[in-house]
């Protein structure tokens, strides 16, 4: 049976991992390569790196991080943050990432999804989407960009469907309302998007304890769940979360071998 | 060179290279037919589209070299797209393929309501024992990402099954050929173990 994935997210600024609350007050917590290896060894199913510098120098450092991670960890990982062209995507994929994640740039230039899928295969193309509850929108959620700071005119459900039809092979769906709160994923939003598209949906934003993952798999129909602070600060471990989920009937990969 | 990895512009070669580097196994990545003929073990990786892959293999003159390599009886490993294009044809782009095994690559049926691609970790069930699969535990999971899968004509060519709505072939092979629909190079320690088994396999 296909298992529910636990995806560990690492925000990288100038080659160091940070984790902020609501995208502010970033606190440095370490070396991305060492952390990646640690999460690999403890049974993370996948990793996501967000490059939150995205300056020219930062980009070069990030490519080197991707190379080193690819040499040492043997699970899939994706890279997002500031990828604005096919050439940016190619560079990251050639350095060893499985997938590239497009967020604001996909809103600004939807053709990137189409061109990326046709050039690299849709399994490589992840749509990162930040959604904010907004009753003015048909689905009740508005797409926001630039790290949650800039509202768009896009409805979250409509944009998800369109992105998949353009070429996205997976959606990482981040709730801006829940992000950094550690009060739980936004299950309603997750279920709505997951049931509307044919591709896997990774729930993001709000994970604070293992019960939240159970909720988003059961009630949110998520295919995978992204975690950050709850494991970065040592409150929980990936094997601990998996044991919790497995005991409640959620299919997860065994953490060892 | 002992291990040769065929470069036909199909997806993420680097992850396969990384895995063999980690296993401290010397390898050569090449698009030269002569190097393929000199290989002790051949790996055909691949992420991508069947017809495009066949076009590149043909344009580079690699198809006769791969056939010749197989006929010598040395170990061959196909990965992902490499497990599909070893069949006779593929639904993807209606492409004629290498025909090293009888059968075709077919698409998951979207009417079943399953997410496509089949993406993530899934367990496999070996059909019998095989040196490549070794002492695989029943709970071992492997990383899949694909919309098509190999469907050999002879069920005897299926070495392990996987379940996604229906059973499909996760590992196929015959004689000196093995091929995985999943990515052993991205399947953690279980995947690395299979690559190690491949390096020791004497068909």
Q: Number of folding domains of chain A?
A: 1
Instruction: Tell me the count of domains of chain B.
Output: 1
The CATH homology group name of chain A? Aldolase class I
Please state the structural category of chain A. Answer: alpha/beta
What overall geometry of chain A do the principal axes of the alpha carbons give?
globular
What name goes with the CATH superfamily of chain B? Answer: Class I glutamine amidotransferase (GATase) domain
**Count of alpha/pi helices of chain A:** 10
Major sheet size, sense and barrel closure of chain B: 9 strands, mixed
Describe the structure.
Chain B: It is found in: Cytoplasm. Chain B: This is Imidazole glycerol phosphate synthase subunit HisH. Chain B: One of its GO terms (cellular component) is cytoplasm. Chain B: It holds the Pfam family GATase. The complex is a heterodimer of chains A (257) and B (203). By secondary structure, chain A is α/β, with parallel strands linked by helices. Chain A has one domain: Alpha-Beta Barrel (TIM Barrel). Chain A is built from ten helices and twelve strands. Chain A has an eight-stranded parallel β-barrel with strand order 1-4-5-6-7-10-11-12, surrounded by seven helices. In chain A, a hairpin with a 2-residue loop joins strand 1 (5-13) and strand 2. In chain A, helix 1 (32-41) packs parallel to helix 2 and helix 8 (210-218) packs across helix 10. The longest helix of chain A is centred in the N-terminal third of the chain and has 17 residues, at 56-72. Mean pLDDT of chain A is 91; it is low at 20-26. Chain B has a single domain (3-200), classed as Rossmann fold. Chain B has six helices and 13 strands. The longest helix of chain B has 13 residues, at 188-200. The radius of gyration of chain B is 15 Å and the shape is globular.
What is shown here, in short?
The complex is a heterodimer of chains A (257) and B (203). Chain A is an alpha/beta fold and 257 residues long.
